User: Fold HIT family protein from PS1 clade bacterium.
Amino acid sequence: MIKLDDAYDDGNIFAKILRGEMPNITLYEDDKTLAFMDIMPQAVGHCLVIPKQPAVTFLDLPDDASAAVMVTAKKVAAAVVKALDAPGFMLAQLNSSAAGQTVPHYHMHILPRHEGLELKFHAREPEDMAVLNETAEKIRAYL
Ligand code: 5GP
Assistant:
């Protein structure tokens, strides 16, 4: 259960990814942010941008880190749209279990959208690593 006033727990999966303790398929990295493939994508090309600064929700994240996430999200979303030839995309960011948040480290979802193509269930079905790597390579070509 993730609550709005939770203290940051650095045992969460994204903290482990940031420390290099868990594998991840990186798309882009700078001093303040990391962008990588979501392993249970709701659409082909679904990826995440996280701040390196620890924060559970949007309310905990200092404004400069928040701004850095948006700058990276714009860069990566532009690449995702080109790589997937997507006519649209969604940015989504969930705060607390009540809103559907499952990982207690702030993150922005980037979800390419195509007319008539429904999103898959949230955080439900792991994608094959080879497929994720192939999609990541296409996205990186535009970064
Ligand atoms: P939230 O529910 O917190 O908004 O989103 C968490 C996202 O992280 C989900 O879309 C889920 O598929 C993804 N996710 C969960 N565990 C991992 C993981 O170990 N690696 C990666 N790359 N994504 C993960």
Notes: The mean pLDDT is 97.
